[in-house]
Amino acid sequence: MSDVPEVPPETGLPVVTPARVVIAVCLVAPFVALLWVGSYTKIDPTFIGVPFFYWYQMLWVLISTVLTMTAYKLWQRDQRARQGGNR
């Protein structure tokens, strides 16, 4: 047995594609938006009496759901295209 891992055969498909870049942006955007706390640590504008700090974060729960679902669907399509090209 060798300690050297086997190298998979070259498929000729690029690793970084526009679809994968969009997937990465969809998955990174919620982290950036919510980790940059200084951008939303304020009370105004209020929405139905709820301070901005809270409704901004709750809005990102919905936005994150949509972005994650979009990333998943793009990933599925990318994987189907790669499998179809190798057969």
Structure summarized in a few sentences:
By secondary structure, the protein is mostly helical.
Name the average pLDDT: 87
Sheet having the most strands: none
Strand and helix order: HH
Name the overall outline: elongated
Rg: 20 Å
First-residue to last-residue Cα separation: 30 Å
Topology at a glance:
Layout: H1 18-35, H2 52-86
Report on the structure:
There is one protein chain. This protein is mainly α and 87 residues long. It has helices at 18-35, 52-86. The chain is built from two helices and no strands. The protein is elongated and about 60 Å long. 1% of the residues are buried.
Keywords:
87 residues, mainly alpha, 2 helices, 0% strand, elongated
